Amino acid sequence: xxxxxxxxxxxxxxxxxxxxxxxxxxxxxxxxxxxxxxxxxxxxxxxxxxxxxxxxxxxxxxxxxxxxxxxxxxxxxxxxxxxxxxxxxxxxxxxxxxxxxxxxxxxxxxxxxxxxxxxxxxxxxxxxxxxxxxxxxxxxxxxxxxxxxxxxxxxxxxxxxxxxxxxxxxxxxxxxxxxxxxxxxxxxxxxxxxxxxxxxxxxxxxxxxxxxxxxxxxxxxxxxxxxxxxxxxxxxxxxxxxxxxxxxxxxxxxxxxxxxxxxxxxxxxxxxxxxxxxxxxxxxxxxxxxxxxxxxxxxxxxxxxxxxxxxxxxxxxxxxxxxxxxxxxxxxxxxxxxxxxxxxxxxxxxxxxxxxxxxxxxxxxxxxxxxxxxxxxxxxxxxxxxxxxxxxxxxxxxxxxxxxxxxxxxxxxxxxxxxxxxxxxxxxxxxxxxxxxxxxxxxxxxxxxxxxxxxxxxxxxxxxxxxxxxxxxxxxxxxxxxxxxxxxxxxxxxxxxxxxxxxxxxxxxxxxxxxxxxxxxxxxxxxxxxxx
Length: 532
Prior knowledge:
Elements: H1 8-20, E1 36-42, H2 60-68, E2 70-72, E3 75-76, H3 81-90, H4 123-128, E4 133-138, E5 163-167, E6 180-182, E7 185-186, H5 196-210, E8 217-222, H6 234-241, H7 248-262, H8 290-323, E9 330-336, H9 346-355, H10 368-371, E10 375-379, E11 390-392, E12 396-397, H11 401-409, H12 428-431, E13 440-445, E14 448-453, E15 456-460, E16 468-471, H13 487-503, H14 514-524
Parallel strand pairs: 1-8, 1-9, 2-11, 3-12, 4-5, 4-8
Antiparallel strand pairs: 2-10, 5-6, 6-7, 9-10, 13-14, 14-15, 15-16
């Protein structure tokens, strides 16, 4: 395998030169050449892990793209892997796409089919219709598990991708991932030096190198890292270990200071301690035993190494694009599917507490820690990004990525057989230096629910928990619940959420533990093929 990576300097020079060149080009929607689009998604990475979002994780290639492009400070996902992927690729709320929960089971009700509805075109379908060659490498996770090994019309190459490589499933292993396909052909057996993240990059680079020069390219790179299990080559973990020995308290405050300096969070606010997420007391680093500290350091060093290997891959992709003469006409999107997870016990929860700085809670819930994602948009075309390195403060959502890609390609959304209207809009005005109009954003996953409307956020942990109200303009970290003090605002937002939930196949909610939910629906709906 090719493990070489470019230097930080070479990557920075290439992208900065593209962004700051003298000749001005406009977006494809204004008549310019259709750009190549590279969409990179990481899995379970927190808001603050990347260097350009305040983290001590070394991500020079991604940071270079951020320097040449823009970073969004208020970009939201759906809080979980499958729903985020469904929304990313369809531009629809996940329930409208049939992915209200997970791929684990087909519940045979419209919002919860366990895979993306065939009636909704994916961004790959749409871009291919206007001349793009389309490629996908990595984690798919929007085909129902019951269809593994039996292509049912929802595999990547059946959904608008010319070529694909990667795993259909979510749960996997970096040394020997499950259900890996090249197109419709299962991949059995892996070489001794196999590492899944590197293989995803290898495949993506090969797609770039074989791409026809006369066609625009859409490349979707869906990394599994840094999703658990935490696995990385020993030498890469060793490189990261020392920086984590100071403990999470020091690192969390250091990340927050850098975020304030970058303009990602307000300078006039303090970093809260989220004791309630730990049952009333969040342990300080000094309260851990030596063994617990060592375990946390090892886990965090492994997690960081996994992200850094993804960053190496971004550098290799940049090099491949440059070698083909494509870099100066390429737009990059880089984001995460949800926040960091507390899975793995109390010590690992303290990892996620660091990763999600400065936000509360974790993956699968609708507090900011679960639904806040970095989003970097970098345009290699000269003069398009008017102020490189800028922070975009406009509120945005993962459903906005598809309309933005269509805008770049110079096409309008043609509609779909289900009659679903896209809730998102193109982010290109914000990337170019303008603003976006205010709108409401809605969330639901496993009965965790929220709505954001301007400065207000209404949120609950689950169906049995009370609704909480926050004024994000004064309390961006969700610490002071105003639901009892402002019942009129609470009730107005609740009515909006309930109306949205009725209209978008969210209801009825279904609150049951993971395994029990799967067994319940398999007994009620034995056909799990996803064919009807």
